Request: fold
Amino acid sequence: MVSTHMFDHRRAERFALLLDEANGRRRTHRRSSLDGELSRLVTLAGRAGQLPTAPEPDPEFRTGLRAMLMAKVARDGIGTQAVERAAHAANRAALAGKTQPIRQVPAGAGRTRAAVLIGVTAGALALSGVSAASTKALPGEPLYPVKLSSERAQLALAGSDVSRGKLRLEFARVRLSEAEHVSGDLLRRVLADMDDETRQGVLMLTTAAVAQNDTAAVELVQQFVDRQRDLLTDLRRSLGRAGPEATAASNALLRAVEARAKALRAALDRGCQIGPGADELGPKPTSC
Reply:
């Protein structure tokens, strides 16, 4: 055993000299009786220096953490949904004579639960050093599944369909930026994922616009189309001859989204009937 008083002044100086020698510095000192005792620590220090500085969390840990969070969301809900569930449960118990009904639930209770979930997720990822690194990960890289899991967690913690719709469209932009750095099958997969995010985001926003009789959500869709179309044009040009074919489906989708957004905005402004039919882009306005 190494003495518990090893790091006195003399031992510390000797340890520093041995480390310098191990790192290639020419030996300028005589051997000491302490060298045998400290050599094991010098070896240990060398091995520690070879360890990776940003270890990945175990895949089972990531899977387990996500399952736990999703189960919590499914059971208790998020935000006002969680507050409402708690109130309903308590009032049912009151009707059964087991407790007193809830007259008022603190407005911040749901936000507190959501904050705890966010804190658990962010803390677990931050401790591993993966959170920041995964934001720049590309398809095919080891940290890319972590990036996607982080996006799904954001969706789960969003407070409304409008918020989730906006997130979906933001993720569609992220997929487009990733497409600039991949090719072949990965490019086709990323563009397909981008289109899927676009459809889901548009569906959420157009449905919310009709339900709330408000064009604000439709305006978000139009703003997305304007920006996404310019970025997609840049990608098509950068791909050369393969560009038109690779981006054809995405361009067609953007045209359909723009047409739906304009039709819905006009219908909402004029008070026209909308529905009852709907498709992957949401409610279909009828002619006035």
Summary: The chain has eleven helices and two strands. The longest strand covers residues 274-279. The chain has three domains: 9-49, 58-158, 160-288.
